[in-house]
Amino acid sequence: MSTQEIINIGTTPNDGEGDPLRVAFQKVNNNFSNLFSTASFTSNTYSVGNTAGQVIFSTPANTFTTGSFQIRSNDPGTNDSQLVTISAQINSDNTNVKFVAYGTTFFGNAITTYDMSITAGNVLLKVNPLTNNPLYHFLSSQILYMGNSIPGVPIELDGYFPGSIMETENNLDVTTED
To answer: In this structure, which topology does domain 36-146 adopt according to CATH?
Structure first.
């Protein structure tokens, strides 16, 4: 990723010391051309037992900036389930992630709490089950990454329909832009 280009605006309005319009807008275009790419993921995972800190999602910290997660956790053996939305962001030196969980909806009993951290260079989304029963977690996320997106990557429903690729009605694979 290129470094940010600062536009010289001069000392006072119309002093002639700032960047000409063409140069200023070239800097604007360069600043925005490779800032971020967004990826959406869905996945299924299980947690087993009530050991705290079981990882249900991981992504590299060096490109992660912000993320929005919706998680539906349920106990397949009971009617207990919950839905939570989590918003997270990483600090600029990739050493800490802050998050807020909100909008938790319960059916039956609460079954888990959530936590996030950065470990071994990865942003981790973790569960802390409140029961010994195996829990099922369906996760939908939208992540804002720094850098350029990779063109032509097949869009899959990761874990939801194993190995499935999204296709159009004419059987064309859906991918990111080339």
So the answer is: Immunoglobulin-like (2.60.40)
pLDDT tens-digit profile of 31-80?
A: 665 555 667 888 899 999 999 999 999 998 988 888 999 999 999 999 99
Label residue 172 exposed, middle or buried (CB < 10 Å: 0-12, 13-18, 19+).
Answer: exposed
Pull the structure tokens for residue 88: 């997270």
Residue at 97: amino acid letter: V
| Contacting residues for 147 by C-beta, under 8 A, at least 6 apart | 1, 34, 36, 37, 63
**Amino acid identity, position 104:** T
Spatial contact of 157 and 164, defined as CB atoms under 8 Å apart: yes
What type of residue is 67? G
pTM of the model: 0.64
Q: What is the DSSP letter of 122?
A: E
Judge contact between 33 and 66, C-beta under 8 A: no
CB neighbour list of residue 18: distance below 8 Å, 6 or more residues apart: 7, 8, 9, 10, 24
d(CA 143, CA 38): 6
Domain range list for the chain:
1-34, 36-146
Rounded Cα–Cα distance for residues 143 and 11 (Å): 39
